[in-house]
Amino acid sequence: MKKIMFVLSLFVFSLSAFSQTNVLPMDERGKYTFLEVAELPLVKKEVMSANAKRFFKGYSKAIKLNSSEGDTAFYGKGKMVLNKSLVGVGHPTGEAKYNISLELRNGKYRLILTDFMFTPYERDRYGNFVPVAVSTALEKSPGKLNNAEWEKNVASIARESKKIADKLKATMSNTIKDPQPETKKPATISTTKW
Amino acid sequence: MKLKSILTIALLSIVSATYAQEAAEAPLQISGSVDTYFKYDFAKAPNIKTYFASEQNSVSIGMIDLALKKTTGKASFVGELSFGPRGQYQSIPNGPDDNSFHIQNLYVNYAFTDKFSMTAGYMGTFIGYEVISPVANFNYSTSYLFGAGPFQNAGIKGTYAFSEKASLMVGLFNDWNVYQDLNGVSHIGAQLMVAPVEGWSAYLNFLSGYSAGAGGTGTIFDLTTAYQVTDKFKLGLNAADYSVSNDNGGYTGVALYPQYAFTPAVSLGLRGEYFNYKGIGELPDASIAAITLSGNIKAGGLTFIPEVRFDSDKDYSQEFVKKSGALSKSASQFSLAAVYAF
């Protein structure tokens, strides 16, 4: 019994540690900002640019590009949906709109997500979650009563930002300019030889 | 003992891994609410008969509401069950043997394209401003307009979104608030949604049909609109007209909902309503005016709703009584509700 209690404590501790690691720092303007600089010395500059375009094409529903500077800087607006979930069960709690910038240099790139505006979701008469009319800058104080919810939202935004960053890194790591998508064929087995 | 420990650790590892892998996807949505309230009528009688704060001088329960939603590709379903007086007694029908199915919503949806989708099943009504769930209403007690209109409409409908600012829904529906239509699918309905500017949405609704046992064809026109004027001030409006042919009555009403948010956690809202029952045949109309002042104090998923309400019934249609038991032209009540949404 003691052992089970010990393992349970460890589990709870690891879950809380998981949630605590999701924090967003603030930039010089006092805005919550996700920043990642990645070094990719093996990827050529023109390939990096093609990779960036492919990334934004893949995210075209969630990120709209506003402008770009040549092939080295991309600026746009994005939207991420935040979920309250545990063990695969839950529901969306809101969405966060943000500004995204991706700047490329020789052998490295910088990703910035900032100016987060949070819009809570409410359940409509049909059981669907839809955004309310008021959006709030993430920096605005939620007040004592709603601080816990707000902290969860910030952690959720940090997690979603990390996912975008990881996806970007995977795309940017391609060393071939136009890689052909892998066609996954099911594994074949022989039923005649055994 | 060793084996037990290993099994426990293995089980917890699986749970942790599942959490990590699926936390973002939420393949099955579960949400809902519970609500409870205290209501005190100043004449010590259950005078105001609108939903749902109905029980006098009692700490009473509303309902536990559970909604499931799952989307697979372009297909999705919603199933919403409610248990409690707000559900079985007041907002959903019973089956033919008086058993409750507990179902508020049960429908399937298929999105043929990003713009066009079809939905079939038993759905919360598209008519009106207020809803059955206590989470989506600002005031806890409801308007006369809410009580007089449909609660659910079973049927099949198609919705086409012209853009984010305009969409049209057209559908065929059963009679109001029934799981089974005894005189066949007999209603046609439509909803035009426009959102001319950010923060403003308006729904123009229409529903017409001949219900089983009715004296004529009932037709309702309904306008439901809300405008978030500033971050703190919101104004809502509901206006409706319902007529049953062959001079079989109906109603007309309008309700205005100004709301002001002092902080993200504390808001105050007023509902001012004028409602008129159309007289059947030679009988005269009867009108009611009501004003409701509600606060919303939010702490996480919990919302407290203190509320005072004054109703004026000059035609005695509601049969309000005084403490003495004599008929009264007015009624007033206080209520305090707690609603938890998850």
Automatic annotation (TrEMBL), chain A:
Keywords: Signal. It comes from the Bacteria. The keyword Signal applies. Residues 172-194 are annotated as: Disordered. Gene3D superfamilies: 3.30.530.80. Residues 1-19 form the signal peptide. This is DUF4468 domain-containing protein.
UniProtKB/TrEMBL annotation, chain B:
SUPFAM superfamilies: Porins (SSF56935). Keywords: Signal. The keyword Cytoplasm does not apply. InterPro entries: BBP2 (IPR011486), Porin_dom_sf (IPR023614). It comes from the Bacteria. Residues 1-20 form the signal peptide. The keyword Signal applies. Pfam families: BBP2 (PF07642). This is Porin. It comes from Pedobacter panaciterrae.
